[in-house]
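Encode chain A's predicted structure.
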Amino acid sequence: MNARACAPQGSSRDLKKLVQKLGKSLRGPVPVPEGLKVKTLFQIPFHRFGLVRWLNRKLIAGSMRWLMWREGINRPITWFMVPHLASIVGRIGERLSVYYCIDDYGSLSDVNETVVREMDDDTTRRADLVFIASGTLLEEKLRLNPNTIVSPHGVDVAHFGRAQDDRLLIPSDTADFPGPVVGFFGLIERRIDLELVDYLAQQRPNWTFILIGRVALPEQKTPHRPNIRFIGKRPYESLPAYGKQFDAAIIPYRQTKFNYHANPLKLREYLAMGKPVVTVSTPEIDKYAGVVEIAHSREEFLAKLDGILSRPSSPTEIRRRIECVAAESWDARLNTVLEILQRRLDGKKGVGPDRPAEGTSTTPMRGQGVSA
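Encoded structure for chain A:
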């Protein structure tokens, strides 16, 4: 389900997505290799209208009850990752409802902030448990639901660690790019400071900047320099191979409210590859100050890159970066969350394996306090 809750703009991409969602919603549940079944539930766009939200509530609740009957499911655990379905939380006879909130959805661009924030607050209040990916959201969420727990993202340490494997080949479509190479992967949208990237590329024309990911901006909004290479979206499985070529990785976020609350997964992925990182400052990124270079201006960003690219990383530095996130695997995160859920289902007062107070972090914030 699209987390943006924004009305379609009438573009060919929007229309294509609507048609695809409608087609998927007309199919039955689709089995996936993990032993689960996936069912796409169609919603009417234009969430800003009260009538549409009422119709969606009826449509989704009816679809869910039909699915539960069809699959023989009684008293399920419902898990919400976006706030669109606030109106059905706790209304389909579930045993436990969980809201996993990974972003400040109301501050996304191109959304109706009032409507999305209202749905987000409503989902937070209604859920039995709320997990948040960023500690900056904790105070606000606790006011709405005392059963709020900080649960940061994990990372596939083994997968991204393949970037250190001498046998892994750099993909042929970038292998000939001249170095040093500064790399980024992720969705390229308005939250990315492309003016900063353009400045860096202008100042260092002998460096190559590889940006991997779908470009969700008009072409006129992107910089055009021979040493900036937008290579498009690449499969997740291939990212370590591309990352192996990076001499440095960057996180060039704009200073926005959305980015302030973000907990960038790519930071952990870069570190799991053992790569040096230069990044802007946000509260969650600052917890990794011992193993990443944090810049507060574009001039400082360039100076930090100059320092990194002036010499290769030592084996000790590479090992420290990888070790910093070694305990933050998705399996570790999942096990902690499952323990919390089990305790709640068992009716015990503690919410985590060590029974911390509600509203505290139950997973190790590994980047915090690492010495330089």
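Confidence is low (pLDDT under 50) at residues 1-10, 352-372.
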